[in-house]
């Protein structure tokens, strides 16, 4: 009896995983190859409309269509599925950390989340012209070069932000469990 239960549960697991993989591979995030007779701008608008209708992708956007910082409810989304085709498998990056009360490993004497967000926005603006100087102003854990990180390590929103940056670009503040991150993609 125990063996049959194991077989049935295993088969159910395989069917569920297969359905998820099939859905991910045939969902709206995959673009069809362009037809010779189709207008490229119409195709782009059609793809964009399809992406915005997809709940997994739409959850990554705020009301203005920009990246929504710190959406913790995306934990069930496969981060690699949300990344655009051609995204790197790993990136080298630097990060400025701004902690606040309640963030992981933040001391009880840390600033409030609102104060941290104001500081993070100011640091992000200044970091676009001098990242190294702003790293020094960040909290412990900030570093000019954090090394290389592969996909699948960070939370989906943080990963999407980092892996869609162009080399040399600096992100807006992203709310992570550790505090606000301002990331710079080095390569």
Approximately what portion of the residues adopt beta-strand conformation?
Answer: 5-15%
As a percent range, the share of helical residues equals: 40-55%
Number of domain units: 2
Query: What is the rounded Rg?
Result: 20 Å
| Coarse shape | globular
Explain this structure to me?
The protein is globular. The chain folds into two domains: 2-72, no CATH class; 90-185, Roll (Chitinase A, domain 3). A hairpin with a 2-residue loop joins strand 3 and strand 4. The termini are far apart. Residues 26-81 have low confidence and may be disordered. The chain has helices at 2-25, 40-53, 55-58, 79-82, 113-127, 131-137, 156-163; strands at 90-98, 143-150, 174-176, 179-185. Helices cover 41% and strands 14% of the residues. By secondary structure, it is α+β, with helices and mostly antiparallel strands.
Descriptive labels:
187 residues, alpha+beta, Chitinase A, domain 3, 4-stranded antiparallel beta sheet, 7 helices, 4 strands
Quick structural summary:
The protein has 187 residues and is an alpha+beta fold.
């Amino acid at each position: 009896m125990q063996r049959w239960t194991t077989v049935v549960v295993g088969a159910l697991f395989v069917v569920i995983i297969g359905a998820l993989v099939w859905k991910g591979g045939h969902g709206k995030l995959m673009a069809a190859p362009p037809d010779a007779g189709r207008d490229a701008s119409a195709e782009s608008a059609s793809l964009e409309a399809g992406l915005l209708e997809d709940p997994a992708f739409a959850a990554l956007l705020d009301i203005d269509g920009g990246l929504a910082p710190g959406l913790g409810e995306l934990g069930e989304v496969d981060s690699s599925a949300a990344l655009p085709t051609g995204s790197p498998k790993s990136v080298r990056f630097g990060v400025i950390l701004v902690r606040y009360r309640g963030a992981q490993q933040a001391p009880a004497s840390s600033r409030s989340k609102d104060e941290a967000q104001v500081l993070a926005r100011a640091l992000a603006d200044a970091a676009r012209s001098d990242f190294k100087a702003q790293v020094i102003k960040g909290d412990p854990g900030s570093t000019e070069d954090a090394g290389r990180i592969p996909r699948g390590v960070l939370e989906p929103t943080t990963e999407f932000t980092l892996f869609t940056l162009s080399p040399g670009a600096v992100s807006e503040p992203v709310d992570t469990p550790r505090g606000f991150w301002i990331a710079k993609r080095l390569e």
